[in-house]
Specification:
Shape: globular
Radius of gyration: 15 Å
CATH class: Alpha Beta
CATH superfamily: START domain
Order of helices and strands: EHHEEEEEEEH
CATH architecture: 2-Layer Sandwich
CATH topology: Alpha-D-Glucose-1,6-Bisphosphate, Chain A, domain 4
Largest sheet: 5 strands, antiparallel
Oligomer: single chain
Length: 144
């Protein structure tokens, strides 16, 4: 079973400015309403500790592995619930320079595993809302 969630927002700021905010994970507790914390080395192959708190849902801690870390362009990781194949999530942040001083920020996650159908309602509601809230706060911060 597979499912993808994808959100985007246009931010009136450069990819560099947004990247700086996005990769300053120590500041997440101060502004990020969805991803409450990320700890660890932001480098391809590194395992990080993350905590997400979707609106009106139980928060969870997990230890994903960074798959891609391309400065000013893309940051992606792969996490698992308990063990691989049960409920896997490939989370991605993408920055697309629009060439006019603005950037399109895309946040997506591809879920795979036998438990995905059990989480469909939560993913469609709480997780999407969490993405949208984070996108909006990132926009507000970058446009200051």
């Amino acid at each position: 079973m597979a499912k993808e969630i994808k959100t985007s927002i246009v931010i009136q700021a450069s990819p560099q400015k947004i990247w700086t905010i996005l990769t300053n994970t120590q500041a997440y507790p101060n502004w990020n309403p969805f991803i409450k914390s990320i700890e660890g080395n932001l480098a391809v192959g590194a395992k990080i500790k993350a905590r997400i708190e979707p609106p009106q849902a139980k928060g969870m801690n997990f230890t994903p592995t960074i798959l891609k870390f391309e400065t000013n362009k893309e940051f992606a990781w792969l996490g698992h619930l308990w063990f691989k194949g049960l409920f896997d999530g490939k989370h991605k942040f993408e920055l697309q320079d629009n060439g006019d001083g603005s950037t399109t920020f895309i946040q997506s996650e591809e879920f795979k595993g036998i438990l995905v159908p059990l989480f469909n309602k939560m993913l469609d509601n709480n997780t999407v809302k969490g993405f949208e809230l984070m996108n909006q706060k990132l926009k507000e911060l970058a446009e200051k």
